[in-house]
Amino acid sequence: MSLTVEEAGRALADPQAYADDDRLHEALALLRREAPVHWVEPEDYRPFWAITRHADIMEIERNHQIFLNAPRPQLLPAALDAEVRRKVEQGAPALRTLVHMDDPDHRVTRAIGADWFRPKAMRALEPRIRELARRHVDRLAALGGTCDFVQQVAAHYPLYVILSLLGLPESDFGRMLKLTQEMFGGDDGDMRRGETPEEKMAVLLDFFGYFQELTAARRRHPTDDLASAIANATVDGEPLNDLDTTSYYVIIATAGHDTTSSTISGGLHALIENPGQLDRLRADPTLLPLAVEEMIRWVTPVKEFMRTANRDYRLGDVTIREGESVLLSYPSGNRDEAVFDEPFRFDVGRDPNKHLAFGFGVHFCLGAALARIEVRAFFEELLSRLETIELAGRPEHVATTFVGGLKRLPIRYRLRG
Length: 417
Known about the structure:
Layout: H1 5-11, H2 21-34, E1 37-40, E2 48-51, H3 54-62, E3 67-68, H4 78-89, H5 105-114, H6 119-142, E4 146-148, H7 149-154, H8 157-166, H9 173-184, H10 197-220, H11 226-231, E5 234-235, E6 238-239, H12 242-273, H13 275-283, H14 288-299, E7 304-309, E8 313-315, E9 318-320, E10 325-329, H15 330-333, H16 368-383, E11 386-391, E12 396-397, E13 406-408, E14 410-415
Parallel strand pairs: 2-10
Antiparallel strand pairs: 1-2, 3-7, 4-14, 5-6, 7-10, 8-9, 11-14, 12-13
């Protein structure tokens, strides 16, 4: 049975919809076609405008002085929103990452880590990334021809990269992976710690406890890693406060690997499902930079960000009132028929590819260059050794409304070496 526009809008607030690509994209295509700026009043969430066209998402991203991250940077259930506010009123820490900030705080705080992700720094890091890519393709080979690619390979490779950059001990990597999956998988029965708002808040408090200890250690004994740069940063001559320091760690240590592992897993799945594109890429490895961009577009690991209008704004035929929130649907923008030729075709040579997976404007992803290098290094190593590959079971996606991708990708394969 076909969806109504109202049902399509509510799908954006349904974590299960993001675990079903066909259902999600049916809803998004309907909204782009019939109601690209659509008022949604979902059960268990505060209402919002759903923004589904590429051009409208870009317009809102450009107008960052009107559409603010605060006070609602992401879609959360009303009960969890209320629990966060209650905890804060009781003195508990609240996450305040770059995702939560607007200028001028965003600009000066972003600058703390910016140099670590510039092209020069990325070139210096690339040998280590390639070494880790080889190690994880070796790991794939050692698994003997069948594995769950997500859980046994893809989840670990970007984690090792970003936590090495931070300077965390390898003994803590497993803990960071579990906490990240619990935080981003809070709506998924296989990944969440618990169902209640209190249990979801506990994950955040565990992150804060870990990183508060790290901050104290790096302030006592500074080192030459990113963790020390954050711990000892100053803003206007004053040390970064403990809340902002810890929040900085959280965004780097979570989004810095989970989104990339989703891209690698989803990119491999797309190649398996499109063997002609896999053959094309193996025959012409110079296409790999374009293929990486197509994987990023195809997967779009960040599903949405929210913005709140600080004054009335006319978008198309709709007036968004001061105080109302908009949901920027990046998977929808990245399948917009007005921008992408045959948007539902996976094309390793797609050029141009004006995807929005890293955002746009002042909030463009800080780690975009790192993610591109990681994905490219992994597939260069894998494709040079790959003989055969196929699915060995049914892939499954994370139930989420924020960040996610595949949680299982069972494969059967043969590698050289």
